Amino acid sequence: MHETTSVENITVKQIVTECGFSRQTFYRNFIDKYDLINWYFDRLLEESFREMGTGKTLCEGLVKKFQYIKQERLFFTAAFRVDEQNNLKDHDFYMIYEFYCGLIREKTGELPERNIRKLLEMYCQASIYMTVKWVLGGMKEPEEELMTLMIDAMPSHLEKLFKEICIL
Length: 168
Hints:
The chain has about 170 residues and is an all-alpha fold. The protein has helices spanning about 10-20, 25-30, 35-55, 60-70, 75-80, 90-110, 115-135, 145-150, 155-165.
């Protein structure tokens, strides 16, 4: 496999051959190659999520996430081009949405109310769209600039809540 091979053109057979594992081992751990991509993405984001959960601000967490993405430019450029079932964009949405809901519950003691969940859903979708656009556009803007745009685009009700629970 070459670094320039698109995700669509990589087969599970190539992955297991390259890694020295059997197909059985691969499928015991992953549904498909996109599940492997999502697993790798999860590992990259764990640290930035952990930092946000331990008192770091949303701004710091976003910059950290974008730094990871930039470090792993090749991976994310290929992964964000995929629109197949089980793709990274959908997985990223689910991860971020669930993270924010969990963080709100942890900080307030209750699940976010319905309106906040809907706003959060729209905000997470827009954030992923902008992240993908940034990645596929060559990551020209600095991470801090992208973070500022995402904070500026936050709905006022979310901004108020995030300030109340001290993550913004």
